[in-house]
Amino acid sequence: MAGDLPLTVVILCFNEELNLAAALDSVVGWAREVFVVDSYSTDRTVDVALARQDDGVRVVQHAFESYSEQWSWAVENLPVRTDWVLKLDADERTTPAFQNEVEARLLAAEVPEVAFVVHWRLVFLGKHLRWGGLYPNGAIRIWRHGQAHFDDRGVNEHVIVDGAVGEIRHPVDHEDRKDLGQWLERHNRYSALETRALEAGNVTGQVTPLFFGSGEERRAWLRRVYYNVPGRALWYFLYRYVVRLGFLDGRAGFRFAFLHASYFYWIDLKRDELRRTGAVPEVIWPARGAPHPGLAGSKPRR
Predict the structure, then answer these.
(1) Looking at residue 302, what is its pLDDT?
(2) How far apart are CA 81 and CA 79, in angstroms?
(3) Range(s) for CATH 3.90.550.10 in the chain?
(4) Which of 152, 164, 171, 179 is the most buried if burial means most Cβ atoms within 10 Å?
């Protein structure tokens, strides 16, 4: 049964069979509505979601163009009937502490905010990473229905609102249960998308870079600075692993810092290749499946 909280959870999915059930378990019965928007998965993602229809989970399919386009479609077309929306990834789970804080904020007598920043706690290769400067790391994930839109970036899209933004201090858990090969494949794709965005001059999207601004504005400022620092991928690794004490997380801490720095180095390599050859980096998308037979027309209905 759906809860009484005036909140709709929206989860975008593609081949999330290994993650989706845990995400749904963490919000069904708490949020009033839950939507799963699938972009034609080839695994059992839709079956996992359809199995929770009796719990109020509503499932639609929509063709994928980009991450920001998919979210823009969801914001504009899903028949949301609550005052608030929560953006949740399929590899994330809400916690009791997070839920209690959200309830206290959204059910208050007066809520001056139009949106809230949500943080996430990373579990990488089976270990919760406590060091490396990975927290706080939030972005706007909760907004008043009808008062948000997404900027146009191929990857790392941002929620844009006009009004006061609050913060939920208790994080959600982020744990991707897919294997490392899929992590590498995904980040290879992200690096090509990021290269395209950077070469088009789209460094920070519609977020204003401000060192003394919000968390997202400060990260936008740091992103702009980062891409002007020589040897930046190495400095990024040293910052995460040494300065921010990532080594205290042991082997998993080293692996995360190394792989994430490598991802940034891939971006540098692809930008250099583009400037040398003029060849825009290819974005290797996985093959999409057919419409699921259990979703007739896949049109969101009220």
Answers:
(1) 42
(2) 6
(3) 5-175
(4) 171
Q: Does domain 5-175 match CATH 3.90.550.10? A: yes
Cβ partners under 8 Å of residue 72, min gap 6: 149, 150
pLDDT at 300 (0 to 100) = 57
pLDDT tens-digit series, residues 130-188: 999 998 888 999 999 999 999 888 788 889 999 999 999 999 999 999 999 999 999 99
Asked whether the predicted pLDDT for residue 296 surpasses 70, the reply is no
| Model pLDDT, residue 210 | 85
Phi, psi of 194 (to 5 degrees): -65, -40
Phi, psi of 86, deg, nearest 5? -115, 125
Cα 203 from Cα 187, distance rounded (Å): 18
Alpha carbon 36 to its chain centroid, in Å, reads: 14
